[in-house]
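Regression test case RT-17, inverse folding.

Input:
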């Protein structure tokens, strides 16, 4: 039972319906994004020419990464101005692009360790997302704390590109697991709150799906540094 289920008068039944509908749409689109990412990753790994073109050329690889960042920023900033079709296309395109870049993990880690880490990440994500959905606490205060942690992880990751320190990489991964675990709960709570306030439609669902998609992917990649067995 959530705080939205308690003693709602008949005039307030609609927000519950909207909330449940939006939440279902968010997870459906998130699942679709993950499926597209997985299919593109497997396609890239199965196509040596494409894989070599991505991984073997630093310019192309970093270009794809900056392209992904551009997609996220553009979609988040322009979601209200975009048509529903355009927002959907950008989310699917981003998911596909991410699948191409993330395919590099298959060259570094064994397939078994990638699969087992994915299951661990899915379990952690599911537990924290469930907490964010059912909690009666106001998680607003988590937002600024987690954002600062995220900025710290990003800056440390950029610095470590040049330092190439294994110990620093482990610290970053540990911090990243904490940050993205917390963000999963916070973002789910935020989406639930927006839905309860009347948000509905595909565009809010796409933006919510993108947010949780990023939480899951980053949590998975951080955990992979701990549990992944290198080839």
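Golden output:
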């Amino acid at each position: 039972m959530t705080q939205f289920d308690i003693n709602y008068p008949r005039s307030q039944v609609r927000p519950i319906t909207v909330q449940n509908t939006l939440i279902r749409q968010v997870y459906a689109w998130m699942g679709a994004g993950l499926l597209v990412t997985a299919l593109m990753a497997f396609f890239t790994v199965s196509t040596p020419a494409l894989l070599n073109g991505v991984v073997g050329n630093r310019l192309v690889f970093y270009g794809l990464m900056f392209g992904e960042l551009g997609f996220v920023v553009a979609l988040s900033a322009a979601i209200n101005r975009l048509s529903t079709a355009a927002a959907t296309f950008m989310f699917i395109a981003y998911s596909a692009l991410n699948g191409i870049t993330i395919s590099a993990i298959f060259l570094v880690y064994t397939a078994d360790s990638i699969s087992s880490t994915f299951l661990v990440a899915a379990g952690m994500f599911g537990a924290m997302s469930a907490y964010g959905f059912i909690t009666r606490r106001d998680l607003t205060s988590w937002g600024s704390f987690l954002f600062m942690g995220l900025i710290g992880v990003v800056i440390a990751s950029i610095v470590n590109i040049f330092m190439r320190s294994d110990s620093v990489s482990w610290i970053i991964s540990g911090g990243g697991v904490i940050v993205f675990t917390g963000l999963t709960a916070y973002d789910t709570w935020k989406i639930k709150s927006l839905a309860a306030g009347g948000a509905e439609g595909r565009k809010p669902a796409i933006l919510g799906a993108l947010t949780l998609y990023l939480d899951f992917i980053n949590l998975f990649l951080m955990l992979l540094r701990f549990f992944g067995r290198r080839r």
